[in-house]
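Tokens in:
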């Protein structure tokens, strides 16, 4: 049990029904970071709370957790429009990032499948290289 359990529980309760959902609408948050009044939540609020408790100065933790809260009211029109544009871009980015990750995994499979051919080509192009098959070997 940590001395911040009660504060953590209060913040979690504040975000009930307003937590990050990668497939849902953006959740806008007051004081997610110290230098921004208003930001979209890009991960579960429990992750942000844990980060604050683990890494922020002791004197800042109660203040950060006290004011960390979802926006519930109606935002100015210009902000609403900007948020919708950001949300669309974020969804596209997230989709592309997922595709990129899948492509990277396929790339790593191709490397393994072609290991012998790559080793031959590497030996030809980098004679004397200290690569041991997994890493460069640095001799002291």
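Residues out:
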């Amino acid at each position: 049990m940590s001395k911040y359990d009660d504060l953590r529980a209060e913040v979690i309760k504040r975000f009930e029904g307003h937590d990050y959902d990668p497939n849902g609408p953006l959740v806008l948050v007051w004081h997610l970071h110290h230098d921004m009044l208003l930001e979209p939540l890009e991960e579960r609020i429990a992750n942000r709370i844990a980060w604050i408790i683990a890494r922020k100065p002791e004197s800042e933790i109660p203040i950060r957790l006290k004011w960390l809260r979802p926006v519930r009211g109606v935002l100015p029109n210009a902000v609403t429009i900007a948020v919708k544009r950001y949300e669309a871009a974020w969804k596209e980015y997230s989709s592309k990032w997922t595709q990129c990750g899948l492509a990277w995994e396929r790339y790593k499979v191709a490397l393994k499948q072609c290991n012998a051919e790559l080793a031959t080509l590497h030996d030809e192009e980098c004679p004397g290289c200290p690569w041991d098959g997994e890493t460069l070997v640095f001799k002291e």
